[in-house]
Write a structure and sequence with these properties.
Helices cover 39% and strands 20% of the residues. It has an eight-stranded parallel beta sheet. The protein has a two-stranded antiparallel ribbon with strand order 1-2. A two-stranded antiparallel ribbon has the order 5-6. Strand 9, helix 7 and strand 10 form a beta-alpha-beta unit. The two termini are 40 Å apart. The mean pLDDT is 95.
């Protein structure tokens, strides 16, 4: 089964759908967001993804008044959430920029008004963040849009994933294996879950959303059959913010896309044959014919 997202098709037999997650790594700066969109486009990614919150709804009650040190001074966690959130005009600007650079763009809505906000802007899909997998009201609102859905499965049990998929349906779903540690150590990648998810939800395309350092695990996920790969991107991993350390810098993203395309070509079709390049060595080296 395949799922059409924007101008691309995601699923078996199609090129790996590479999502550059900008998330909140723009730090509330439109120009920084546009630079990150350029990084994604220059690297050959297929899409960029953001996060959209209505802070007064999506911020957990116990976190709202927690002090946070920021580049703009000490503020509460809720004030920080407001400070880095883009409004309609900013999203129109960055969305248009992504479109002009040939990228699909969408976001993870963290609450029902955020779904409505993104629908008004005409996003091509919705992404369910791992933290939101257990929110039935949000899942219901996303399903009602009729748009393709990418579902991340970090910090979740299989039973929770079952319930979320029951709520979302499978006809326009792409499932993403994930571990929500930032940054994630290799021992927590558990890439064999890719196969488990494919077997448990036949017909649903399964990809990988990674928070590790480096490229090896994401490339291995493609070799194991992941049809989509999502990675956070940044201009500099030392920048202020919670996601930068688990993000790829521009050169890293370019190398990831390059290596994914090489692995895709190397996987082949599984039919054993003698390739043209083998004919000369065979004539030279094989003493006994068939």
């Amino acid at each position: 089964m395949t799922v059409a997202i924007g101008s691309r098709v995601v699923g078996g037999g199609q090129p790996t759908y590479v999502i550059a997650e900008i998330g909140l790594n723009h730090n509330g700066d439109v120009e920084l967001a546009k630079r990150l969109i350029d990084v994604a486009a220059d690297a050959g990614a297929d899409a960029v993804k953001f996060q959209k919150r209505t802070p007064d709804i999506s911020t957990p009650e116990h976190m709202r008044d927690v002090p946070r040190e920021t580049p703009w001074g000490t503020m509460t966690y809720l004030e920080y959430r407001h400070r880095v959130e883009f409004g309609r005009d900013e999203y129109i600007e960055i969305g248009d920029h992504a479109t002009m650079r040939g990228l699909d763009w969408f976001a993870s809505p963290w609450d029902v008004p955020a779904v409505e906000f993104l629908e008004d802007l005409g996003v091509v899909a919705h992404k369910v963040a791992s933290a939101c997998l257990t929110d039935p009201e949000l899942l219901g609102a996303i399903r009602e849009t009729g748009k393709p859905v990418l579902l991340s499965t970090g910090m979740s049990t299989m039973e929770q994933i079952d319930r979320a998929i029951e709520q979302l349906g499978t006809d326009r779903l792409v499932l993403l294996h994930a571990t929500s540690t930032y940054p994630m150590e290799p021992e927590e990648a558990n890439l064999r879950v890719l196969r488990v998810l494919r077997d448990r939800f036949p017909g649903v395309p399964v990809g990988y959303s990674g928070h590790e350092r480096g490229l090896q695990i994401s490339i291995a996920a493609v070799a194991l059959g992941a049809v989509a790969v999502e990675r956070h991107i940044t201009l500099d991993r030392t920048m202020w913010g919670s996601d930068h350390a688990a993000s790829l810098e521009p050169t890293g993203l370019s190398h990831l896309v390059r290596d994914i395309r090489i692995v895709e070509a190397a996987l082949g079709d599984g039919v054993k044959r003698v390739f043209p390049g083998e004919l000369a060595p065979m004539a030279k080296l094989r003493r006994v014919g068939a």
